[in-house]
Amino acid sequence: LQKAITAYNQAAEILRQPGLEKDLSSTLNNLGNARLTQAERGIEPAENLQKAITAYNQAAEILRQLGLARNLATTLNNFSFAYQAQSRLPSNSPDEKQAALDNAYRSFQEALDRVEYLRGEIGANSEGYKRNFNEEWNKVYRGMVEVCLELGRYQDAIEYADRSKARNLVELMATRDAYPGGVIPDDIRQQLQELRQTIAAEDYRLQKEKNPDRTHLDQLRQEFQKKFPYKPLHFQAMQELLDEETAILEWYILEDKFLTFTLTREKLYLWTSSQEDRQKLIGWTVAYLTDYRNRNNSQWRETLAQRLEELPKILHLDEILQNLFKNFPKCQKLILIPHLYLHLFPLHALPVHLPSSPNPLLPEGEKGANSPSSPLSPLGRGAGGEGQSSPLSPLGRGAGGEGKFLQDLFPKGVTYAPNCQLLQQAQSRPRFNFNQLFAIQNPTNDIKWADTQVETIRKFFPQRKTLGTKATKANFLAQDLSQTHHLFFSCHGSFKPNSLLNSGLILADGVLSLENIIAKLNLKECSLVTLSACETGQVALDQTDEYISIASGFLLAGSPRVLMSLWSVDEASTALLLIKTYELLQKQPGKLAQALPAAQKWLRETTNSGFYAWVQKSPLLDDHWRKHLAQVFQIEQNKEGADFRPYESPYHWAAFCVVGQGEQKMARDRDKIEAFEVLLGEDLDYLLAPYRQALDELQLGDDDEQNAQAIETWLATREPLYQEYQKQLATLTAANPLLGPTTEMGIGGSKANTKGSTLEELLSNIKKRNTPPPPPEKS
C-alpha cells in the first residue's frame, strides 16, 4: 500500500497540467482509496484519513468542473465514507466528531443527487440495467442511513431507507399513472435532462459563494419535480399516509445490524439490533430457505410452526409491540414494510407473547381477554368445532401473557407494502366498484379444488366471466380488462429467481410471464387481484433493494392491492381459505384486511366436524358443491376424528397476505350519481363543454344501479371528465364510509332513486345552456 501511495503521488504530480484533468481525478481517487484502506488497517488512521479526504476533495472539484456525474458520484461516495470513518476516531473531540459527520451527510447528499441524475439517463426499457445500477449504488443509501443514525436524524434515516426500496417499481408506477403507455415522451425527457444539468451547475456555483442565495436553485428543482413523475416521499408525507388507528413497522438491514422503525401519525420510534441478532437472522434465513428449496421440502412443512416461534425472538418483536401499544394504545391496523429476505416470511403469522397488562382496547375498568366475560376473548368453538363469534370481531391482545399471532393483535388487519411510496400510490388509486369479475379457472385441468373455489366465489359477482381450459396466453391477453373490478387466478404459479421476467402464472398453453403482465395488462379499474397460485409473493434475493415478484406486476398494471402467496400452497386448504374470505368479504365489502385474517383463524381452528357444519350453511355454496364437500369432510371425520383440526399448521393458513392497500371504500350507486351531478354543475362547465352534445347518449331511468352503470359507461371514454368524476366520488365516499346492507353499496343490489328528478333537471339545464339563443326579432 505504501508503494502504491508513493506511485499515486508521483503520478498526480505529473498529471497536474492542462488536458489531463480526468486522469488526474482518477489518480487522486485511487490515492484516497489507498489512504482510506491504510486507515482501516489501523496504520496512522487520523493522518491517513485526513490525506484521503484531501485527495477525494481535489478529485471531486475536478469532476464537478468536467461534469462527469458517474465519476463524481463514485468519488463523493468514497469521500463520505472517509468522513464517516474520521468521525469514529477515538481521539476526536465532540466538535470534531460532529464536523466530520456533518461533512459525511453533505457528501452523501450530493452523491445521491448525482445518482439521481444518472438514473435519469437510463432508458425506459432498460430494466436489467436499472437493477444493476441499483445494486451498484445502494451502498450510498446504506451509508447515508448510518450517518443519519449517528447524527440522530432519525426522520431522515427512515426517509432514505424507504427511498432505497422498490425504486424501479415505484418509478414505473408513477410514470404509468402520469403518461399513457408508461413512457416519458422524448421532449419531456430532454427537458428533464437539461434541468438536471442546470441544477448541477447552479448547485456547484453556490458552493463557492460565502452567502449563497438558493432561491433560483429551489425554483429549478420545483420545475423538475413538476415534470418528473417520481417524487421522493418526505417524512411528513409518510406520516400523512396513516390515520389515528394505523402504524407502520419498517425494517432496514445494514452490514452490522438491522433497524425497525415504528411510525405513527404523530411519532417515530427506532429499535436497533445488535450484530449478534443480525447474525442470528442470517442463520435462521439460510436454514429456512435451505429446507424450503429442498426438492422434498416435507421437513420445512413439518417444522414451520417451530421455526416461526424463533423468528420473533430474533426480531425482538414482543419488545417492539409493547412499545407500540404503550405509546399508541388505539392502534388497530398495522402495515409491514420488510427489507430484502424478510419479504419471504409470513411476518403477519409470527407468534407473539405480550406480558400481562390491561387490554388497551377495552374501556377503563373492564377485564382483560382472559376473563370469561370479556367481549374480546378468543373466538369460541361450538359443538361443531366452528367459531361462533363474529369472525370480524376484535381480538384481545394477550392479557395474562397469552400467546397469539401478530395479526390477531390488530382488529382492522395487517397488510404489506414494499415501501411508503408505493403505499401512497396505492392510496391514490380509488376503486369504488367490485361487481365485475374476470376469473381464470384451472386452465391446465389438474387442480380439482380450483373448480370448487372459482365456481363458488363467482356467485359473489353480478357480472362475471370465466376462462377455463380455453385460457391460452393469446386468448387471455386479447381480453379487455380495463373495466374489470376483480381479477382472480386459480392456477399454477411459477417463480424463477434466476429469470425473474419469465416467472408467472401457468395458463393452458404456457406461462403468462411477469414480462407479459407488465407490458400488456391495463387494470385501471381493478380493485383487487387474487392470485390463488404458488409463490406469487416470492421476491428475488439480491442487493438491489428492488421488489420483483409476480404480484408486483399486477401492482404495476394498475391494481391497488394483490392477494398473494408466500410459498407453494396446498390446493384444498387454499380453496377453503379463499371461499371463507369471500364469504366474509360479502358481509363487509372492501375490508379484505379484516376478512382474510378472520378466515385464516377460522381455517386453523375449525375441526372436521366444524367444516361439515359450515358446508351445510355457507351462503356461497350451491347444492352441487355443498353435497361434494359434505362427503369430503364426512370421510375426514371417519378417518381422523370429528375433533381433528386438519389445517392447524401455518403451512395451510399463513401463506396468503395482502400487499398494497388493505381496504377499499366501495361507492354506493347514490354516491356515483351525486358525483356525476357535481360534474353537471356550472362550476365545472368548462370541463363539460366539449361533451354536451354527447349527453343525449345517456339513457336514464328510475333505478339507481342502472343509472350509475350508464353514467360510468358514458364517462369511461371521456378521460378528463372521468378523472374529475373519480375525484368527486373519492370526496363523497370519504365522507360516507360504507355502512348498511349490501344492496346500498353497488355490490349487486339496486335501490330506487331517492332524489326525485334532480339528475334529469340538471341534464335538461345543461342542454339548455348548450342551445344557442334565438335570433332577435326584426323590427
Automatic annotation (TrEMBL):
Which InterPro entries does the UniProt record give?
CHAT_dom, TPR-like_helical_dom_sf
Organism of derivation: Planktothricoides sp. SpSt-374
* Database matches in PANTHER family: RAPSYN-RELATED, TETRATRICOPEPTIDE REPEAT PROTEIN 28
Provide the protein name: CHAT domain-containing protein
- Outline the segment boundaries, as ranges, of region: Disordered: 360-397
Q: Which Pfam families match?
A: CHAT (PF12770)
Record-annotated CHAT domain positions: 412-661
